Amino acid sequence: MNGAQALFNALTNAGLDTCFANPGTSEMQLVYEMGKSDAVRPVLCLQENVVTGAADGYARMANKPAFTLLHVGSGFANGIANLHNAGRGNVPIVNIVGANATYHQPNFPEHEFIGGKITEVAGAVSHWTREARSAAEMGILGAEAVSQAMIGSGRISTLIAPTDCHWDPAPDAPQAVAPAPTSRVAGSTIASAAALLNNGRKTGILLGTHALREEGLEIAGRIAASTGAQLLAETFPARLARGEGRVEVQLVPYFLEMAQFFFAEYEQIIVVGALPPVSTFAYEGSPSHKAPPSCEISSLATPDFDVMAALADLAEAVGASDETSPRCQRVEPDQPQGVLTAAAVGQSVSLLMPEDAVLVDESATAGMDLFQQTVGARRHEYLYAIPGAAIGNGLPVALGAAVASPERKVVALQADGSGMYTNQALWSIAREECDVTIVIIKNDAYAVLNVELARVREGEPTEKMLSMLELDRPTIDWVSISKGMGIPAVSVNTAEEFHLEFEQAMAQKGPMLIEANIAQDLQPVVDLILQQKAARAEQES
Amino acid sequence: MNGAQALFNALTNAGLDTCFANPGTSEMQLVYEMGKSDAVRPVLCLQENVVTGAADGYARMANKPAFTLLHVGSGFANGIANLHNAGRGNVPIVNIVGANATYHQPNFPEHEFIGGKITEVAGAVSHWTREARSAAEMGILGAEAVSQAMIGSGRISTLIAPTDCHWDPAPDAPQAVAPAPTSRVAGSTIASAAALLNNGRKTGILLGTHALREEGLEIAGRIAASTGAQLLAETFPARLARGEGRVEVQLVPYFLEMAQFFFAEYEQIIVVGALPPVSTFAYEGSPSHKAPPSCEISSLATPDFDVMAALADLAEAVGASDETSPRCQRVEPDQPQGVLTAAAVGQSVSLLMPEDAVLVDESATAGMDLFQQTVGARRHEYLYAIPGAAIGNGLPVALGAAVASPERKVVALQADGSGMYTNQALWSIAREECDVTIVIIKNDAYAVLNVELARVREGEPTEKMLSMLELDRPTIDWVSISKGMGIPAVSVNTAEEFHLEFEQAMAQKGPMLIEANIAQDLQPVVDLILQQKAARAEQES
């Protein structure tokens, strides 16, 4: 047995059966092992941010990690942004990264970085990083990588595997590793939270990671019903059980100004499986925190703890009955007509999306309307594509979710600017014949930046400023791009056209892309921000 | 004045006038400054590896850096692979990367990495990395970043700029920084090299970085003519002056087995502006070095030294006359006919490419033939896209080279698998109306990996192995993709069709893409490798 075989056995013995891959020369020994075996389904992706994003989407739906196969430091680097998204969403991924032979690294061949080692780069977006130094380590490190990925709500493990560790002989011994323990929240912490819930103050329970899945929401709903607390969801949920019959939660808004309004009434927040709510960006003269200073924030469990056990313990501590807080009701809006807006897209999606679909959301500014419109859809799993706010994960997550859940319809609501980042995912979706309907929400701009520019500019934006934010010269023809990678596609301009095409997509299996040319008016958001800016300026003077 | 203005002034005062950008919220203040000014041309790119690769191509032709504008850690990460290429090619780039406000970083908002800071990630592919800690530092750090990028043959500078350092007040003082000195090679080292050149042994002068530009080759040619040494070029030259009238150099082959054959006759190698020639990858049972152990390698100047001065000093030390070693002769092959091979593409390119064109090469396995066929082309600049061997830089480099050299025709020979990595560059090429002819060398595979798999497999490859190397299910329609991003495109299948389309592309200005469906036979390379493998196995038994 050689090191590559030992590693491959360790990964498959630990239950991994799916590999998203973009291999190179240094990974050929693993390609060879995988190619000889029936134990793993390899999915080739044409750029590494598709590889890592697909592994993210897969794990969110499969509840276990896939492993990635990445080519040396630069290949890993190409996949960092979506590993960052997965890591911030506490989604488990096991990365296997080839590297130069241990003895060849000091010769500084082309793939070696000029200023540091890949271990340092990998460590920035991995909870656990190791570089094998001999073939004998390959099996045990592979098993450890899986074990470490399963801690808490999920983690990123990265094993760097130099080529000589692949081809050198390795011991035959089984390499099972006991699961790494996930910490239970202490009884005193549970009791404190229970006391807070009984103190009569206006309380929000801010849920994240596994607390937002069906089982978590059921328990949280019982706690809320018995205490009068409001259930809130983190702004960027990796997976949220949603739609008809699911316990209802309020999403914390993205924009600081809206979030401040949202939190204004709360006196205390208890965070469960999430982090305290801070603004994604700081703005000059504005606070960092979304909740007011008067609102006390306490943490029941960060995502590293056993979040489900913490919720169950809390339910018991508050003596929760079987009754839950309100559930989402099915809403059947009128079939939308006329101008194609984000809201109209949302209405058609809400009307037509089948039960137990997966809704992947990277719709950016259009998402505010889309999210509102789809709360009354049939029961579904909602995956916010980018928990780490790094754009370009929607199409990869859709690919991975479809590979994990071939029985579910996957609907990807994808903004155009973000979608271009990883358009290569279309090819893998076509190749794997995934049942994915992609809706490109096309506004020909990085529209959010028009909002953000309003915060810093004096006067109107110049043509040159807009040239750095707008995508309309030339306009991108997503139908052509999609067909170029093997996915049939149509372009629509009215609510009626969209409804018809989306209806057909829902009625069939297999990949389909709809370019939805939407009309969008973000002026109300800009106005809100400018009003607050003016108010601050007046206060200061 | 605020920090963003101080930084912008520092960059423009240092002579920078081009910015490749993909900004986000934390860079809006710089978008605003750039948008108010005439001093800088911003070029929007739809993914950061296009941004950094375009900055690479720009600097290779402009002989000064562009600056990039990148959005926080994940945006920087997306651009790492091509920064790695530029860094390994010693091409100057100045990166400006937005970051969370200094006081907001500890709140761990979404863009903060899990386990490390962006400074460590940036440091892996930058020669110089700083994070501003106050607005007062922005100007001086901007000036230093440019100065540091200009050391030696060129370096990567990265300045991380938190948002509060943009909006806080900054001093008005001018921020000029003296150029950082580039080390001269010591006289004793020159004398040693001169002595080697006179010892009567079979000698190769292995040239890299600026030694391969026109001025460098002229001096090297005089040294070669007076000493009988052979001029060699590093395998992956960032820029090589080539074609009719240029001093001829022999490129060191990529594949180890071919390189060993190439170096077999040499007794000593003197390296100038390059590194000693090692194999890109180590292989089981094979040496790391391309030259035999009996061949002595000495370094006259690494790329950090003043390479041109070293060459001039060496020419004087050996008493070189004005006579040079042989120059490339114009070769006008017959117009190719029939099956479209890489060689046929090369012949048409050689026949038709106008004088002073820029030939960007990321043709991968097809490059062996293409490089041979274009040595007799008209005078041109040859840019090997990926000095760091990280695929996906050809289209970005073509974009950047065209922005730097609007008077030159740019021809990009681009392999299909690598081209997909950064296909987004097509949009910027269309938008900037670049005079670029892109030839997609389409073989529907990561063909090099078929060669590399042969090294490790026993028996024939399985379907499953090939599924990780081949791109033919579905085949990629580059014409559709290209049109989708605004570049007219055609697909050709014969040598005659290619010749006709390429001829038309050379006769017009503006972007054009030709999908060249080539027939390729790599079996001779596989056979060579398998022969050597068998010979090693026999030796061992």
From TrEMBL, chains A, B:
Domain of life: Bacteria
Domain Thiamine pyrophosphate enzyme TPP-binding positions: 389-515
Keywords: Thiamine pyrophosphate
GO biological process annotation, one example: small molecule metabolic process
GO MF term (any one): flavin adenine dinucleotide binding
Matches recorded under NCBIfam families: PRK07586.1
Family named by the database record: Belongs to the TPP enzyme family.
Protein name per the record: Acetolactate synthase large subunit
